[in-house]
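Input record (one chain):
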Amino acid sequence: MKKILLTTLFLILTFTINAQTIFGKWNSKNDEGVIDSVIEIYQKDKKAYGKVVEIMNPDRKDARCVNCEGEFKDKPILGLHILSGLEKDDDEWSGGTIIDPRNGKTYKCYIKLVAPNKLKLRGYIGVSLFGKTAYWERAK
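The corresponding structure, as predicted from the sequence alone:
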């Protein structure tokens, strides 16, 4: 009986800890509010990065970032590293950039966990006053 109780408590604790992090898979929505891709956020060298791991529209699975510049020009969107170089600062991650594959533009950004399964992402040019906020929900 103790083993079952300890195992159950361990599993609950594991899920609770995992739900309190920005890392994992997140649903990204288009301007119409429809999930169009899944982004995986991961940590490397104490910084946060994110890449497109799934595209929902079967007709766009082979889409390329035609409007992107530099090294991302004409790269497949599936697998594209869109978030890079975010560093932890209190309860948010900032100091990095995000690429919007829809228009090919790169923005400064910060992300913050606002609920266990809800992530606030703000992309901006210059200062965060001039930008756009998106909310991603954790992928199941």
